[in-house]
Input
Amino acid sequence: MGTIPSEIGNLQQLTHLGLDHNIFSGTFPSEIGKLRRLEMLGLSENTSSDTIPSEMGNLQQLTNLGLDGNTFS
Output
């Protein structure tokens, strides 16, 4: 178990990020909203139960989002 570090926001050239099946828990960092070139984000089958950060609304290039298998509130 672990969390996604806030430093992920430094990877601003990233277009695809697959973090499925990693048993991440806790919150997804709001810094994920800084990844404005992101087209695919896979976060399926983790154990996160918090809310999805509103900053994900900044991901205007995002066309593929996988969130299934989590228990968001």
